[in-house]
Amino acid sequence: MTDNPTRKVEYGVTPTEVMASMTGIDFLRAMFEDKFPAPPIMQNIEPFDYSVEPGVVAFSSIPGFRHYNPIGSVHGGYAATLLDSAMGLAVHSTLPAGSGYTTLEFKVSFIRGMTQDTGAVRTEGRVLNAGRRAATAEARITDSKGRLLAHATTTCLVFEIPGPDAKGM
Question: pTM here?
Answer without folding.
Answer: 0.91
